């Protein structure tokens, strides 16, 4: 059996761990020895007024991993939800894994700690579990009021600097940004660091130049873009892959999305599951951590409920046929 299959089966067999009223998802051990739950709640576009409730519903449903980012503008709501669940006695801080991300306008090494500090204050938790470089590219830092003034605070920064709609990049090497990320670990306010949207050549270059290996690479990953080569590359090096947009972002209504396909509907029917559950299960069985986003309570539950069935090799082959990117 391949290493990935082995990991998949280990995850499958440990999935029946029960704690309190909820069945929780199992965790994977990261390369720094810490543990990360294999199902998390995504929060991109979980907007003001709905994000806090969604995170509370997710904790109730058994999620113990929440994915946010400075960019999403909802770190305060995520933090409020987690603190309220801690105050209620439903969870302890160490039971839940909180991920946030360094935005592209803060890649200059002297800006990394300042940007982290802002996210840390927004979340208002005793520590952050994982901080990611959101993208392997840097934007120039300019004031959001359009003036030439130097932004005085993180919130003064234009997050999408552009000229006629084209992003204005800055010439900062992500290796230098990563070294500043390594420095954050010494503060004790963040326990793990990782990257996002890195391809294999970028991973290769980073790993050859730095001392601390990222614990995860968070990338777009779903049947239409299954990332099997990147998953193998990372897992061979004890780096997890976190699958973002694991449902394929159905709201973009792209053609041929697996979640809408009759073949996936048939597989779902055979297991008494939904197409969304089959799609999530596929990336999970390939060895990825999945972070579906929903703000609807029923779907939050549905997306978590992928641990009590498994796709056969034939069904995995059908799912493999959707890969087209
Ligand atoms: N690192 C990065 O660059 C990056 C980029 C993108 C995303 N992410 C992270 O990954 C998370 C997930 O990705 P995503 O939000 O882009 O896309 P996604 O999880 O693939 O899809 C979310 C969309 O699917 C709908 N949905 C949720 N559950 C469903 C179900 N069971 N059946 C049918 N539709 C369902 C949601 O609507 P409702 O909310 O109305 O249910 C929402 O519109 C993000 O929230 C974010 O945390 C990271
Ligand atoms: C990955 O790293 C962790 C922590 O050091 C270790 O316990 C685990 O055995 C490693 N796994 C593999 C497959 O090397
Ligand atoms: C931050 O958390 C502390 C303790 O949990 C709480 O007393 C305080 O009100 C919170 N601050 C904000 C701005 O929410």
UniProtKB/TrEMBL annotation:
<dbReference type="InterPro" id="IPR023210">
    <property type="entry name" value="NADP_OxRdtase_dom"/>
</dbReference>
<feature type="signal peptide">
    <location>
        <begin position="1"/>
        <end position="20"/>
    </location>
</feature>
<feature type="domain" description="NADP-dependent oxidoreductase">
    <location>
        <begin position="39"/>
        <end position="323"/>
    </location>
</feature>
<keyword id="KW-0521">NADP</keyword>
<feature type="binding site">
    <location>
        <position position="134"/>
    </location>
    <ligand>
        <name>substrate</name>
    </ligand>
</feature>
<comment type="similarity">
    <text>Belongs to the aldo/keto reductase family.</text>
</comment>
<dbReference type="InterPro" id="IPR020471">
    <property type="entry name" value="AKR"/>
</dbReference>
<dbReference type="InterPro" id="IPR036812">
    <property type="entry name" value="NAD(P)_OxRdtase_dom_sf"/>
</dbReference>
<keyword id="KW-0732">Signal</keyword>
<keyword id="KW-0560">Oxidoreductase</keyword>
<feature type="site" description="Lowers pKa of active site Tyr">
    <location>
        <position position="101"/>
    </location>
</feature>
<protein>
    <submittedName>
        <fullName>Aldo-keto reductase family 1 member A1-A</fullName>
    </submittedName>
</protein>
<feature type="active site" description="Proton donor">
    <location>
        <position position="72"/>
    </location>
</feature>
<dbReference type="InterPro" id="IPR018170">
    <property type="entry name" value="Aldo/ket_reductase_CS"/>
</dbReference>
<dbReference type="Pfam" id="PF00248">
    <property type="entry name" value="Aldo_ket_red"/>
</dbReference>
<dbReference type="GO" id="GO:0016491">
    <property type="term" value="F:oxidoreductase activity"/>
</dbReference>
């Amino acid at each position: 059996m391949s290493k990935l299959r082995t990991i998949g089966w280990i995850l499958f067999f440990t999935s029946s761990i029960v704690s309190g009223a909820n069945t929780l998802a199992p965790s994977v051990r990261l390369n720094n020895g810490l543990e990360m739950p294999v199902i998390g709640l995504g929060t991109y576009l979980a907007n003001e007024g709905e994000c806090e409730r969604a995170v509370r519903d997710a904790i109730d449903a058994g999620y113990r991993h929440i994915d946010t980012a400075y960019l999403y503008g909802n770190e305060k709501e995520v933090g409020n939800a987690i603190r309220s669940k801690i105050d209620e006695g439903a969870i302890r801080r160490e039971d839940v894994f909180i991920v946030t991300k360094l935005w592209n306008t803060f890649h200059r090494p002297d800006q990394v700690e300042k940007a982290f500090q802002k996210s840390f204050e927004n979340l208002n938790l005793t520590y952050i579990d994982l901080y990611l470089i959101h993208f392997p590219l840097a934007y120039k830092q300019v004031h959001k009021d359009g003036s030439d003034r130097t932004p005085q605070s993180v919130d003064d920064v234009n997050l999408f600097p552009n000229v006629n709609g084209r992003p204005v990049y800055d010439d900062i090497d992500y290796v230098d940004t990563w070294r500043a990320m390594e420095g954050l670990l010494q503060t004790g306010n963040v326990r793990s660091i990782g990257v996002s949207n890195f391809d294999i050549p970028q991973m290769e270059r980073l790993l050859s130049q730095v001392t601390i290996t990222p614990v995860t690479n968070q990338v777009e990953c779903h049947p239409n873009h299954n990332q099997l080569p990147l998953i193998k590359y990372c897992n061979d090096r004890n780096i997890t892959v976190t699958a973002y947009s694991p449902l394929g972002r159905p709201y973009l209504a792209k053609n041929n999305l697996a979640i809408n396909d009759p073949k996936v509907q048939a597989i779902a029917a055979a297991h008494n599951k939904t197409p969304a559950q089959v799609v999530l299960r596929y990336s999970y069985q390939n060895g990825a951590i999945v972070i579906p986003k929903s703000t609807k309570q029923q779907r939050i539950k549905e997306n978590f409920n992928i641990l009590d069935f498994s796709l056969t090799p034939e069904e995995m082959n059908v799912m493999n046929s959707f890969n087209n990117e």
